[in-house]
Amino acid sequence: MRVLIAYLSYSGNTQEVAELIKEDCRHHNFIVDIHRIGIDAPVKPSDYDYIFLGTFTWGEGTTPDEVKDFILEIGYKPNNIAVFGTGDTQFGGDEQFCLAVDKLVKFYNSPWRGLKIEQSPRGSQEKLIFQWLGGVFNHVTNFA
Length: 144
Fold this sequence. Notes:
Blueprint: E1 2-7, H1 13-27, E2 31-36, E3 50-56, H2 65-74, E4 81-87, H3 93-96, H4 99-108, E5 115-118, H5 125-136
C-alpha cells in the first residue's frame, strides 16, 4: 500500500497527528510519503492507495487558504481521501470545533468520518488516532 499524508500545520498539532499516522502506517509496512501543504512540490494523487489530508480550522470555522490551494492543485476529487484535523473548542465552541474537517469530508464525499483532535494528540487522544486508522483500513488484512 502506498500512502500520502498531506497536511498544513502552524502550531505543530496537526503535524503531530500526521507523524503518528505515518508511524502507524510504516509499522504496517506501507510506503508513506509526507507532503507539507504550501511548502513541498506538487504531488500526483493517483500514485496513492490512500490520501490523508490534515488541516486545522481557521478563523470562524473556515478551511485555511493553503488547504484550498492544495485542493485546487489536485484538480479533481479522489475517492480515497481520509480527513483529519486539530482544533480548539475555546475558539468558537463545539459548533466550530474542527469545522474544516467536516467541510472537507463532505466536499470529498469521503467514505470515512473525519478525525478531530482537541489541540495536541498527546496522551489519551493518541488512541483515537489509531482507532480511526483501524476504521480507514478495516479491509486491510492484519491491520490493527
